[in-house]
Design a protein that fits this description.
single chain, alpha/beta, Rossmann fold, two-stranded parallel sheet, 6 strands
Length: about 240
Amino acid sequence: MKGNGDRAIALKLDVTDAGQVAEAAKAARDRFGQVDVLVNNAGYGYLAAVEEGEDREVRAMFEANFFGLVAMTNAVLPGMRARHSGCIVNISSIGGIASFPATGYYHATKYAVEGLSESLAQEVGPLGIKVVIVEPGPFRTNWAGPSIKQSATRIPDFEATAGARRVQTEARSGKQPGDPVRAAEAIITAVQSPEPPLRLVLGKPALEIARKKLAALKQDFDAWEAVTLGSDFPEGGASF
């Protein structure tokens, strides 16, 4: 790659292709000896109300956003385990914490990334491997522009919710407040930290959404505490 000499290589990689995943991991090891940091950034969005979703498109997005991430992670984990070091950075989204109309299926892929990453962090942490879940808000990338996909189905009953959000998403493309360069610098800072955060929220809008979600969760938990606790056997519930 220009300007990087022998410090970087550019490879064609479709994370949904097992052969390409294996070849890319091998090429990186052959060139640099080992993979110290993996950044799982492949993915895209899909606009559709849940009832409007097209099965083929939804499954394809899961293959890229979730199963591709799993494949890349498993391609580098053996080496990291052998060295008892490394860092896996999984790019989620603020949409992995909070959900909105029209992006339900996209949220589902990111919630899956969040759940998997939490478990992975507990499994590999004792082995000296770090996991960072990155949760960006709206950033000025192609996510809401050329790369996003949409269902061709439009149900009138959802025009005020999912339909309106489709319009809003398209309108803000190229105008998002998030700076991708500063986001990359923030991720590097986290990775190089002696104690990286499990979750790294990026951007003011994302932080506001995350805090609002936390407050909403607490409100529900507190309001329904008596019902929640009353669902156990009198002698106490099972432990997990």
